[in-house]
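Recall the central idea of this unit: under ordinary conditions, the amino acid sequence of a chain determines the structure it adopts. In this exercise we apply that idea directly, starting from the sequence alone.
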Amino acid sequence: MSQPSFDFGAGDEPLDDAATPTFTVAELADAVNGALRRSFSDGVWVRGEIQGWNERGNHAYFTLADDTAGRQAVLRVQFFANARARLRPLLAKHRLRLSDGMKVRVFGHLDFFAPSGSLGLKLTDLDPRFTLGDLDQQRQLVLRRLAADGSLDANRRHRLSPVPLRIGVVASEGTAAWHDFHDELVRSGFAFHVVLADTRVQGPEAPRRVARAIGALARQAARSQLDAIVVIRGGGARNELATFDAELIARAVAGAPVPVLTGLGHEIDRSVADEVAHTSWKTPTACAAALVQAVAGYRQSTETCFAAIGRAAGASLGSAERTLGDQAHRMAR
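Accordingly, the structure predicted from this sequence is:
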């Protein structure tokens, strides 16, 4: 039986040479990392949106995304414990907390991770001014749109009831903000009737959920079941307050048929919701105290009126009694 043979050319020729080398995968990974270190030896600044924030122990991992039309791209970012500890004071100073949806400008060193074949950035620094600037820019755009169509002061045209006892509340049940607000009303001794629309007030879904909760309470108010709607949350990072810069929430506030009061727990910053609301307060407790004061003021004015009526009636009766006495005295003569 014959055996076929194959001619692969001269057997002494090398498979590759210095001009066209053949790499193993590991060698290629080393070559890529070497090229990255040479090209970006001092590190690189990159901007994008945080997606998929994930904490594992003291480390954090996320994807930095660029959704520019026709130029979609993502970069994996490693934010290791030592860098997080070093940057924590900087974030605290600017009241920022990294989370999904944030626009950031970060600095780090590129690394090709051979086991997964992926390019990543080891984050070592960030620029808080970039994030704050983006938040403010988005806020100003929303305010201009609201002002253009008259929504900015629409809710302030409603008159607050002189005795606002029926209150709809948008809050996250079980939080300190809710308990502070509720306890302040209870301590007053007044017969407040509170309807809670329990919802998340932070996170990517918060704007939609808060707006939906305001809408649900607004429908009750339209049936004359509520005197006012209150939107509250506790303090937190500046970017978490940005939830209440959402146009969706602002338009829900503007469209409510009763006054909307806010107590969003920020002593310094004002959100778009604060700007659109009938009245804004710095904290949930202050918001509740204002309602208590309004009811107490109504009671005081009512008691003052009753006292004045009593005095006037007493004076009138006294005068009538003297008149009758004088007439009786003349008749007795």
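The first strand starts at residue 44 and ends at 56.
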